[in-house]
Fold Acyl-CoA hydrolase.
Amino acid sequence: MEAKPARLSRTVLTEIILPADTNYHNTVFGGRVMQYIDKVATIASMRHSRRGVVTASSDSLDFYAPVKLGEAIQLEAFVTWTHRSSMEVFVKIESENLLTGEKKRTANSYLTFVALDDNGQPCAVPGIIPETEEEKRLFETAETRFAARKLRKEERSLYM
């Protein structure tokens, strides 16, 4: 299976934050952001694997700033690394004040997806070819995150 450039999985989702998306602070619900993250990361992983996928884990969701009512939220996702049937997807989230044009980094997240064959079983995925500085940095640090994920999974299995 031939490796693919990370850029081919790059996916952007933009939404405007409306009253139904906000909490009592007039900022977006964290759960709504999580929904957007899962959606954009699913598309990125399907673009890379050209297979149905399932979310295997969400490693982290680090919030840096709120997204306010009336602002746009933009999520950009791409596959950073693969391992047999799994894909690590990085999602960066920005907000934009549509009246002033001011943009700010709102959050980052890492998720893992598994590609499935026609019988719903995990199947092999292509490797990744990082091209930009950001892609290369994330690719080079991915094995460390993979090892941490594996350790966390082993530790959790002790409590199940």
